[in-house]
Amino acid sequence: MQQIPDLGKNSLGKPDPWAKFRGLAWGQLVLSIALIPLMLAGGAMGQLIGAAGLFTNLFLARKPFRTPVKLLAMLGVVLASYLGYFLTAGLVYNLLKG
């Protein structure tokens, strides 16, 4: 009997950091990684919002929805993440600068 390999580990038995991205369609992959610039340039607030959006998109990508519905939902997460970041950053800036 053949064993099914564990996709969460590499050949050395270490956890595979890219396992969540494997097997996604190109559109799903693009919408998932579209939040990485927010995580890199947004400071702690951008990292929090970007990571939440990224993991939400990875969660949605694995759901058994129809492809157009899934892509629209993932696009909505990307837009909501960026909009939420800019609104929160503007609010914090206005509170601090008065």
Walk me through the topology.
Layout: H1 26-33, H2 36-41, H3 43-61, H4 67-97
Q: Could you characterize the architecture of this molecule?
A:
The protein has 98 residues and is mainly α. It has one domain (26-97). The chain contains 4 helices and no strands. It has helices at residues 26-33, 36-41, 43-61, 67-97. The N and C termini lie far apart (69 Å). The model has no long low-confidence stretch (mean pLDDT 88).
Strand fraction equals under 5%
Q: How would you name the oligomeric state of the polypeptide chains in this document?
A: single chain
Please summarize the sheet with the most strands: none
Radius of gyration: 17 Å
The global form is flat
N-end to C-end Cα span: 69 Å
Number of helical stretches of at least 4 residues: 4
Instruction: Domain count, please report it.
Output: 1
Q: Give the mean pLDDT.
A: 88
Order of helices and strands: HHHH
Low-confidence stretches at least 5 residues in length (pLDDT < 50)?
A: none
Structural class: mainly alpha
| Record field, number of beta strands | 0
Helix content, binned percent:
55-70%
Brief descriptors of the model:
98 residues, mainly alpha, 4 helices, 0% strand
Question: Brief overview, please?
Answer:
The protein has helices spanning 26-33, 36-41, 43-61, 67-97.
